[in-house]
Amino acid sequence: MPMRFVPKRSTQHRIACIALYRLLYRQALKIAIPKDFHLPLLASEYLEHRSKSSKLLVPSQERNPIRALVTRQFRRNRHDTSPRLIHAALTSGYKFVDLLAKAQDPSSPEHEQVIDYLDSHPPKPPKEPKIKPVPRPLLIQIPPRSPGSMPSYVPAERPLPLSSLKGKRGIPRLCSTSHGFPFLRLGKPQSPILSNMLRYKSLQFEDRAQYKEAADEATDDAIEEDMWDKVVENLLVTEGIKTHEDAQDSGSYLQTLEDGEQLVKAEMDWERKDNINRARALMKLMLEEEKLAKAEALERNPRLPPKLLGL
Fold it and tell me: Any idea what DSSP says for residue 107?
């Protein structure tokens, strides 16, 4: 059974395609085309400029439409794996090599054929980019009043008015990860932004915990390294290579581990206190949403029993 042909694994095929692409690309620059083909991509501006501009044929190297057509066609065919389709595409490319070579003469019928094709296929207007609204944060951080205190949080824009909601008001639920990071579950499906943030927080907590565990395991090794360094330094002092002051200024492996462990512990303690402040703000927000939901339920049905307002 013949093996399947994979174009990207064939060096000869890749070299042939790149050479064909470069040849077509260079030939496109040598064809004299009207100035008015190099216009803004809006169709209205294109047609308006076509009626006012001259028909002078000049070579142009900026936004050449023939080069754009060549690039677009190569991009369309780059995923082809069928030998039949690849053979047809390369055969068509070699035919266009002859066509563009003859079209370099402005008086040739091939040049007129190229101009007629460009005239009948004006550039398409560009698609307007979709501007996505920037999501506002759920909480706003209030800086601490004193250097030693923790920052506090307040809701940014929630609870929202009923007019800006679709349907009934849903009450968010205060949840927490296994590492103690609080968040509000607003609905289903969960936002990818929230999922990525929770994943990042979990990985950050695990990295700090692993560092503390590794530091505890390396304590005995650090003590032995310090003892060995002290023996070596005493020998250097005895030989007169070092003085007692130089020996005392040298660092300590154990001290480095303890400093790193204290830093990680301080970061974890700060994050724990920060999570508590976040949870308080989120709890306040959840209670306000629940209060509004009960009021709106009574407004829709004033005879609703109080027991059913547990929501």
Answer: T
